[in-house]
Design brief:
16 helices, 2 domains
Length: 392
Amino acid sequence: MVVYNTFTTFVHTWDSILDQQKIKHFFQTAFRNNSIAQAYCFVGDEGYGSDAVALTVATLVNCSHPVVTLTSANPCGTCKSCLSAAEMANPNIHFLFPLPAVKSSSESGASPITLLTEQQFEEVSSEIEKKKHDPYYTIAMSGSDTHLINTIRFIIRESSLSLQQEGKKCFIISRAHRLNTESANALLKTLEEPNPSTLFILTTSQPDFLPKTILSRTQVIHFEPIQQHSIHQYLVQRYQLADKEAQVFSKISDGSITKAVSLLSDDIQQYRDLVVELLRAILRGGAFRNKTRNLLAELIEGKNKKQCITFLQLLLLWLRDAFTASVTNQIETITNIDQLDTIQRFGNHYKNANFSEAFRVIELAKRQIDGNGNIQLVLLTLCLQLRTYLKV
């Protein structure tokens, strides 16, 4: 059972950001040189840290006592501004995300959150609470897929008002690719003539969905995947995962904290057991088709495409372990170390298997399912291919 750490509020300092060394150095240098731009667009997959860095930059430019040296610039983490930023309650820092559609307000520039129903407001509060404890968490509300015009009207109104405290007004627009046409056009006008005391940071995993006119008025910063060992350590420390579980999650996370954490709700151990059962069924004698179909039916039942892709990633990891055990014998690199005996027996028995082709068809199946291919047909075809390549 996963125990979620919901007790520690995340204070935004550079030490809390995983990897992204170039980006951290860039902003610390810009702060020391008083050259922070007025608008940035952070581009990278969800879970790479764009929101976390945005919140840290906003905290830094509003910190009352920043810790500045010849080579670094860090929020102090203890002043009133830093602590309120950690609680996502700093009046200078506005973290904006897609909200459900609501009726337009008669009050121009009203906070979009005040327009929500009581049930929606409770959901927003719950999501913000999760974000407070984990800045890598992606806020996702029911029925929300767009940044509506109310949000941009709020930004326009707020950016025109005087500062309530020292610093800069920071508007972080998370998942900015969810701006609709009306919202994007309104935001563009604001970016063309920004208030000198404002800072805009857009974060997106899909920059192609943003108008080029908006991108041209921001400084684009690209984020890299987070390293496996960093994700592994994060899951152990923040989510109290056992070392073995954290190792598996970090290897199938594709460098994304968000993806790694989203997998915590899946029964990964059940998937891992099913991997072994499926391989046994595929490689058995004449009755393999019925057994394989039954296992695939069990796998598909009640599962969405992301869960099926997770299973295929686990299958890929298991076969890579078998390849490692049979060819390189580098035991320390094996992911499923708790299944070492089974993996070694498999690797020794199928030493002549065409592992490279097996890896290729699994990756192909992942792409086909992600592209909305028929899951049952894709998996059945994959099983037949694996039987061919493994029983060489």
